[in-house]
Amino acid sequence: MTRVFLFGLLLLASAAHAQAEFEYSSASLREVIEDVEDRTDWRFLYRDALVARAEVRLSASSSTLPDALARALAPQGIAVDADPERRQILLASAPRVSTPSSVVPVAATPEPSRRVRGRVVDAETGEPLPFATVTWDGARRGVVCDVDGSFSLDLKGDAARQRTELTASFAGYEPASSAPSGPTVTFRLRSPRLSPTAIVIAAPLLDSNLDPEWAAITQRAGGVGEGGGLRALEALPAVAPSPLFSDGLIVRGSSADAFEVRLDGLPIYNPRHLFGLADAFNLDALRAVALHYGVPPARSAAPPGGTLEYVTSAGSLRQTQVQGGVSSLGVRATVEGPLRPGRTSALVSGRISTLGTAPWAVGEDLVAIGLGAETRTSELPPGTAELFDRVLQVTETSARFGDLHLALADEGKTGRRTQATVYLGGDRTTLRSLRTQLSSDDERRRVEQVPVETRNRWGSAALGIDDTRPLGAGWILSSHVGVTAYGARFEADDYTFRLARQAGEILVDTLGYDNALREGVWSHQLDASLGSGLLTVGADAHLYRVEYNEQARNRVFGREQEAQRLDLHAAWAGPVSGLTADVGVRGHLYSETTSVRIAPRIRLTAPLGASATASVGFGRSHQFVHRLTLGDAPAAAAWVLSTSGEPPTEADHLEGALNVDLGLASVHLAAYDKRTRNLREHIESRSVRDNLREAAVLELPWLPDVDSHARGVEAMVRAPVGSVTFGGVYALSRTDLQHPDLADGAPIRADWDRRHRATLTVDLDAGHGFTAGAAWTLASGEPNGLAALAGEDDTLPPIQRIDLRVAYSRLVGASRVTASVSVRNALNRDIVIERDRFLLLRRGITLEDRLPATSLDVYDVGVLPSFDLAVGF
Q1: For residue range 29-81, what is the model confidence (pLDDT) as tens digits?
Q2: In b/e form, how buried is each residue of 604-621, taking b as 16+ CB within 10 angstroms?
Q3: Pairing of strands 770-779, 748-749
Q4: What global pTM score does this model have?
Q5: Chain-centre distance of CA 108, in angstroms?
Q6: How far is CA 513 from CA 492, 519, 629, 680, in A?
Q7: From the CB of residue 364, how many other CB atoms can be counted at a distance below 10 Å?
Q8: What does the alpha-carbon distance between residue 751 and residue 683 come to, in Å, rounded to a whole number?
Q9: Percent of the chain with pLDDT over 70
């Protein structure tokens, strides 16, 4: 009898314990979430700011936990939306009530349409994920989040009456799904620490088929050391392959200055360190990179070549994190963490170069090539030497760069988020040499050595404040204010002017410039979900001040400019008769011209069954700030503004695209036609130098009214097979320039024009932290600047290059270590980037006895290994 009594007591105790499996007297809501997720299969979706200061007092079992949480949190303005099927508990902001009327706040009478607003964040840090995608209906419908990770969508019909599953995706993260019954949801995505910074192709690919996996094709690093976003974009068919040292990206035939790089909404006028060797931004400090090209939406003031949007990370809202790294280029460190847990976070990230100071750094020979001190060329004729190799003796090269990122963000319970960011970056390069020259003294001629220098330095600074806040369901107001500044100075004691290539006439003289640019930006944008679409209206104001002074052979030129620009835009995106439309218009009022410039934008997308979409678009874009590149000089870019006599660049862009999901492979096809007016071409650029009409009289150091016509077709294929992903891109294109003073007004091929280009890629996830990738790039040659000479071909030889990369990542205690090794041009191919005329000497002959000019191929950098090692804890 006693045993029975004791057994009964045990049963009662077990039952009581089961009924009170979770019991909290006064615990923080964050602690409750972590405890429940550790002990059960329930998972929570929430914003960190919402739960930061909430406390919980309850007693519940696993089955009654959602009811108990709803009763405990309702007085604190937090609603509970439980989904037992998916074992998810969604926490959202709600009006404070003293007694909750129900556990799950679902309307009693379902509406035929339902608006859902939310945000996609990092599960570990709570930081928003810019440009993430949210899809539903089998991924046939979806939206792209804004820079703040926010989205707003409308569900219709059955999708509004029931729990429709939404899926959030972001490159490098595991997708997450949820089926909210209420009006808000926050997705929390998980990713390995120290994963590569995501590059999201925002348009036209994601806008047309919302396939985030396309972004994987750009995740390999194509540069040196830690790589970079700009170099990685050359994996796309719309971006032309470029040499290691280059001026920037050529996108769909537009010149490099027509592609704008922005950091947190502010243009950065030199986004590359050391003439293209590396990005000017530390990738550890960035949250995402979004590429917009093709026909831009009216919401974006994109120039003709498109934009690349870098977004600074604001730091973790939950815990302090430290990252450090060393690469072939430099050392870097990043510290981030909460100032007020769940509400306010901060980030500090810095990087400095180690060129010439560390044993693992990039060699001095590479620095010398970048500074123009050395040139890799085809073989010289037997018994000869290059004149300037004999004349110029390099004594010292120096190259340094650095950058600093600062960020501070604050988030409110209602979804308001304010972020301030600061960026500083710059280069300083010097080349010192001894020039051998002949001098006359008292009718005697003698050889002497004169010290000469080439000096170049530039610096950028940007300060921005962004504020995003919801104004009720489906309304979001975004405000931005900031200033960006750029300054550059170039001085060459012995710049080589090529006056007439046909005669081989070369003159050595001084060349230099000073450039300073200041731009203030203010903008407001309101996004409103109206009906089944999204309405966007906004205004941007820009204040410019630019100074440019150039001292060249027989020329001194100076200009000071001040200008103001006001943009107004309106756009609507949503379904129309079975199509998805994005229609809008952007107007520019520029103080230096009298007319208002109108830029209409339209894109229509149609589903072709369950696995294909087709789209067509037309848009006009304008460019008001123009870059001048001084030909062969290894100099940072200089910038000038449009004037009434030199109107803004204007481009009309027509494109069509087809996206097909074949199950085992995804295919993207596109065709475009782009006509651009009022380009700037400096007189030292190859196109002008080789084709300028001899009788032309130039009052400026550049031609301001060059036209171009670019057209082409593009293809992308991606096929994952188990742990291996195969990819391929192909582009057939042509770009012509035209000006009355160039080639007698006839169209000429642009310097960067390559008719064919193809890249094949293989990426392997070998497991146990090992990944590997290979890219094989082939492209036809650029136009030969010496084609008019007898015996010269119209184009340069084709290029072929193989790049390899191996990476390993693993946890060591609480830290994650990532190491990678990459090899650019692994087969050490001689890649011709230009053909030029060189003056030669017979060996042993005096400087006076030179041979006629000889044509030689100029090569890109050969095989180039590099490494990167990063640690995060």
Answers
A1: 888 888 888 888 888 888 888 888 788 888 888 778 888 888 888 888 888 88
A2: ebeeeeeeebbbebbbbb
A3: unpaired
A4: 0.86
A5: 46
A6: 9, 20, 11, 17
A7: 17
A8: 13
A9: 83
